[in-house]
Amino acid sequence: MKLRVDIMLKEGVLDPQGKAIGHALGTLGFKGVGEVRVGKTIELEVAETDSAKATAQAKAMAEKLLANQVIEDFRVSVI
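The structure corresponding to this sequence follows.
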């Protein structure tokens, strides 16, 4: 089963990479772009066939390794 873990910085955490991209878009002539936030996506393939168990497994992976829960939020989805 394939799963996707989307990880984003929590609201209120500064995102210098997002700011740099937002600034660059403005200098390239893209007007009206608001706040830009950068995250990461991790796709996992697991042997589990039950979607609830696979999702729980991916959530445990995110909590233990993939996401820094102090500054990041994550969302797990089956793909």
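The domain at 2-78 is CATH 3.30.1280.10 (Mth169; Chain: A ,).
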